[in-house]
Amino acid sequence: MTQDEDRLRVLSIFHYVVAGPAALLACIPIIHLVVGLALILAQQNIQGRGEPPPAWFGWLFVIMASVFITLGWIFAGFIFATARFLAARKRYMFCLVMGGVECMFMPVGTVLGVFTIIVLMRDSVKQLFEANNPVQPTP
Fold first, then answer.
1. Angle CA(72)–CA(75)–CA(78) in degrees, nearest 5?
2. Phi-psi region for residue 56, left (φ > 0), alpha (ψ -120 to 50) or beta?
3. CA distance 19 to 32
4. Does residue 53 sit in helix, strand or coil?
5. CA distances (Å), 1 to each of 5, 7, 8, 9, 103, in order?
6. Is the pTM value of this prediction over 0.85?
7. Could you report the per-residue pLDDT of 75-133, keeping only the tens digit for each?
8. 129 in Cβ contact with 6 (< 8 Å)
9. How far apart are CA 63 and CA 40, in angstroms?
10. Any alpha helices (H) in the chain, and if so which ranges?
């Protein structure tokens, strides 16, 4: 195994490791989802204890939490896919773009993204990807 293949293997493992906590952290807005549902359902269960909050306020919680949960799970799925592609040495551009996107999520994502970009920019690594993805001539 060459040094580049070893680096890609290690990067793949770290991407698998980071995908798990990313998916778990995306579940934090479930708290807001439950609060929003409680606000919506509280419209019918108020027993003379003052004015209930408007229903749109509960729906705002539900919609925003659902969006953040979905986006977080999609991001975790992309990190997982990047790990698979790095291990198989496929989809070079996807892996490179994901390395850049991961840089926004400090501190672990930044470190992982920077190392991913550094490794993928080496010519010998590009050749490993090209060997697994031969360019098809256009007819």
1. 155
2. alpha
3. 23
4. coil
5. 6, 10, 11, 10, 28
6. no
7. 999 999 999 999 988 898 999 999 999 999 888 889 999 999 999 999 888 888 888 77
8. no
9. 12
10. 3-25, 30-45, 55-88, 92-102, 108-120, 123-132
